[in-house]
Amino acid sequence: MSSTADPTSIKTVSRSVGGSAAEPPPNPHLPSLIKATGIIAPAAPPVIEDTGVEPHVLSDLALKLCNTVPRLTSDWAAQQLRLPLDIVDKIFWQLRDDLLLEILGQDAGNFRYSITQRGREYARRLLEISGYVGPAPVSLEAYAAMLEWQVSKQSRPTLESVRAAIGALVLPDEAVEVASLAASSGRSLFLFGPPGNGKTSLGRMLHGVLEGELWIPHCISVESNIIRIFDPQCHQLLEPSMQGDARVDQRWLRIRRPMIIAGGEMTMDELDLAYSPSLRFYEAPPHVKANGGLFLLDDFGRQRINSIDLLNRWIIPLEHQVDFLTLATGQKIRIPFRLMLIVATNLKVKEISDPAFLRRIGYRVHVDKPDEQRYAEIFRRYVESVGMSVDPALIGAILQRYRDEKRELRASEPRDLIERCRDICHLRRMPPRLDKQLLDLAWAGYFGVGED
User: In Å, what is the CA distance from 290 to each residue of 94, 179, 190, 441?
Assistant: First the structure.
């Protein structure tokens, strides 16, 4: 990685992105921005003071990195730390002056270094405070400013885009419109109703209307505390990768707007910073990783904590768009809460919520069981989606069986019955089809033979 970007041109582009050249940046903590290959990206800091992080945080991180290998080059360290080479060279020269590093030689203008015994002793003390070794952090203030700027630039979904995204569901027009209002406004959405009728599917599909991209950091720093933000299990990197582009601040990653799903396994502790005593740094909670995207709290009311306590945890974030997290020292930090929160439950609303929370929820949708007309439409659509056909009289016979057995219709059951018919055809080595005999067997396998 080389540092060839012209700082003056970066600053000029930064101002042109936010407005005219005479306008001040909207937030003093907002990183400089540059247009690289047609994409607006955080600009590489030309000097250490422009990283937004205290110099000692970067030098301590660099020394811990040096402690992991017997020898290294400044170019390799720049790639690991995601910092421009000029900045890493300056850090290494200071570490050398402090007798923490020694120069072994030079290859093609790239110095080779090794940590001294004094450096190893100091690195061990640093690792007792924080075990983090990896890409350099950005400041909490820069993360908050960049997130706010990006959210303000994102386009709002339209009614048509929401209809297209959730087109696989057969919902009443009113439910579609309310869901569209929630997605367009970015407000929270409360989905309730009997199980098996598409609440989770609706929540997942609404992620498809969140257009655009997001820049997030590998991690952020609060004084000497490191909080990891990027999670490869939660965040999807976008291509083409801009890794190695000297104009771009490599501490930031370009991702698709995230969707994080939490279910009945979630605990109250998971909604705060997770500190690892062995690693000695923090992992951001799931709703922070969902910033700029969607957070789906599924199966609400089935968590191992009181539902009212869990709802009260969201009241301040929903009202003020900020959350307060606690460090191991007891210090509180303020972090943005800029996401679409969707809560889905099949329990009675009065039993699991209170008026204070419901007042702060943006929109509510009752996802009820389908009537016979909607059930038949769901059945037909799914049959078509798997490349099969069905006799309308067969759908009528299925609906009559529901009446005879006094079963409630559920929107998920056409898919489940059809898939079981396909399983039977696969087992019998026959082409997929639907007939009464296959559906009778699928019915018995799904609902149970002789079930009361």
Answer: 38, 19, 17, 43
